[in-house]
Design goal:
71 residues; de novo design (two linked rop proteins); 3 helices; 0% strand
Length: 71
């Protein structure tokens, strides 16, 4: 899979996460859970794009590890 296709897939994934959180009921519990889902789901695309702008291979691998195992 090339970079362009993966960027598009991560963008679609982020938009799907946004739609999911928007469809949750308006309760306190779903608000808390929805915020966490939103942060985690949209960070995948942002972190992948940051990895694509890495200055070296080692830097790119380090940024991709963040996507795989968030802190």
């Amino acid at each position: 899979m090339d970079e362009k296709i993966f960027k598009e897939r991560t963008k679609k994934y982020g938009l799907a996460v946004i739609r999911l959180t928007e469809s949750l009921p308006q309760t306190r519990t779903s608000d808390v859970i929805g915020r966490q889902i939103l942060r985690c789901g949209t960070s995948v695309g942002a972190n992948y794009r940051a990895a694509c702008r890495a200055k070296s291979t080692a830097d790119m691998i380090n940024k991709l590890k963040l996507i795989e195992n968030p802190v």
